[in-house]
Amino acid sequence: MSPPSSVAHQKLKHHVHHECLRAFKTAIPLIISFIPFGMMLGAQAKIKDMSWLELVLMCGINFAGGSEFVAIGLWQQTPPLLLIVCMTLLVNCRHILMGVTMIPICRRQPVRKMLLSFFLLCDETWALSLQDSYRRMEEGYREPFSYPHYITIAVSFYITWIITALLGIIIGPMLGDLTQYGFDMAFPAVFIVLLRGMWNGWRRGIPWIGSLFVACAVHLLIPGQWYVIAGAITGLLIVLCLPPSFFEVDHA
């Protein structure tokens, strides 16, 4: 008979393997969508004369596609570093809110481990992990947050993103304008899928809709990247101006 510690170890190993496999199956569609998305980033980096090392460092250290596209748009022979840093901070500040929303579901995890893991947090990882945690709550799991599930998705996206961006800077110029193949639809398509999965009633959608309309209006009226700032501030102002009870979900 195996000692109890060995049995517990085998159960833990089986659990981790099962969660990693489940996470990978969940992430596959989005991993595929990362391929054209990352290649577009790499191709744009090549147009801006960014070296492959600079691109890999940006993707590896920042790991936030939206802000990386903004940074490449601002990239010049002498990069305006302060402006790029400010824009990156502004675009990525949503990660603070995303991290806060995950605290209730992963409060039993060691803080040091989660702080390191949150380095890999991106929109897609956040959305899939949150959906999975809510589902586990409804199914009565004692621990709603699955760390193996989270870290498998996060690492899969991280590796895919860097590799595809690198492919983009190498072979993107050979393919020409990637938008002619419809690759630019990958970005909105991914977020529409995530939005559908996260949709929790029209009340919670009001900040998103307000932010969208203001960002579109500013984009049409004012040249430059100001629509990013306008959309983000609009969403925050709507949340701050409405009472918290307005966003409560009615499960009746």
SSE blueprint:
Elements: H1 4-47, H2 52-62, H3 65-74, H4 81-92, H5 94-102, H6 111-117, H7 123-138, H8 147-175, H9 186-198, H10 202-221, H11 226-241
Which terms would index this structure?
0% strand, 252 residues, 11 helices, transmembrane, mainly alpha, 74% helix, transmembrane helix
What does this structure look like?
The chain has 252 residues and is mainly α. The protein has helices at 4-47, 52-62, 65-74, 81-92, 94-102, 111-117, 123-138, 147-175, 186-198, 202-221, 226-241. α1 (4-47) runs parallel beside α3 (65-74) and α10 packs antiparallel against α11. It is globular, with a radius of gyration of 20 Å. The model has no long low-confidence stretch (mean pLDDT 83).
Rg calculated over all Cα atoms: 20 Å
Mean pLDDT: 83
Class by alpha and beta content:
mainly alpha
Number of strands: 0
Q: What general form does the structure show?
A: globular
The arrangement of helices and strands along the chain is HHHHHHHHHHH
The N- and C-terminal alpha carbons lie at a distance of 51 Å
- Report the biggest beta sheet as strand number plus sense, adding barrel if it closes: none
Pfam families: AzlC
Protein name: AzlC family ABC transporter permease
Subcellular location: Cell membrane
Family: Belongs to the AzlC family.
